[in-house]
Structures are given as C-alpha cells and as structure tokens.
C-alpha cells in the first residue's frame, strides 16, 4: 500500500513513517524544507517538497496514495488571533 504522510519529519510523523516503512509499505512524505529531505529519504520514504499551503502538490500526492495520514502542523502562532472574535 502507498501511504502519503504530511508532517513526515516531525516528532509524530517520523515515528509513523518508520513504522510504515518497517511494515513494508511504500511511503511518500511532505516536507517544508530541503534540509529535512535527507532524514526522510534515509528512513526509506519518497520526499515530497512543499507545505499544506501547496494545494496542487497536496492534490497530486493524495491522488497517488492509497491512504493519507495527516500530522502536519503550522507552529507559527504570530497570527493566532486572526479570524477569532475579539471581546
């Protein structure tokens, strides 16, 4: 089975990738920066460079997969209150 993992180099995502590859699955993982790519490749997964904001990349990756595991998270809290009703 081919599985696409977002956040593939994060704390949770990297553990999931290792388990999936170890179980014999084909895995592709989304990484935001090229410096994360070597660790994902070394884990046995195909590297997909992009972010959850790259909708075209996401569509292509999801279509090519049998399953998707979403563990990506944007840790930028600088705009946390944008869109939230203020008292």
Summed up:
Helix content is 31%, strand content 22%. With 87 residues, it is α/β, with parallel strands linked by helices. The protein has a single domain, classed as Rossmann fold.
Q: What are the defining features of this structure?
A:
single chain; 87 residues; alpha/beta; Rossmann fold; four-stranded parallel sheet; 22% strand; globular
Describe it for me?
With 87 residues, this protein is an alpha/beta fold. The protein has helices spanning 11-22, 37-42, 55-63; strands at residues 2-6, 26-31, 46-49, 67-70. It has one domain (2-70): Rossmann fold, CATH 3.40.50. It is built from 3 helices and 4 strands; from the N terminus they run βαβαβαβ. It has a 4-stranded parallel sheet, with helices on both faces. The model has no long low-confidence stretch (mean pLDDT 90).
Instruction: Average the pLDDT over all residues and give the rounded result.
Output: 90
**Which outline best applies?**
globular
**Helix coverage percent of residues?**
25-40%
Low-pLDDT residue spans: none
Largest beta sheet: what is the strand line-up?
3-2-1-4
CATH level 1 name: Alpha Beta
Terminal-residue CA separation: 49 Å
Which structural class best describes the helix and strand composition? alpha/beta
Q: In CATH terms, what is the fold-level topology?
A: Rossmann fold
- Biggest pleated sheet: 4 strands, parallel
The total of beta strands comes to 4
Order of helices and strands: EHEHEHE
Beta-strand percent range:
15-25%
Give the second-level CATH assignment, the architecture. Answer: 3-Layer(aba) Sandwich
How many discrete structural domains? 1
């Amino acid at each position: 089975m081919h599985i696409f993992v977002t956040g593939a180099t994060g704390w949770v995502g990297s553990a999931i990738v290792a388990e999936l590859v170890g179980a014999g699955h084909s895995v592709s993982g989304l990484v935001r920066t090229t410096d994360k790519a070597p660790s994902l490749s070394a884990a046995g997964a195909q590297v997909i460079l992009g972010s959850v904001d790259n909708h075209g990349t996401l569509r292509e990756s999801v279509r090519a997969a049998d399953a998707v595991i979403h563990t990506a998270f944007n840790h930028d809290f600088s705009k946390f209150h944008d869109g939230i009703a203020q008292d």
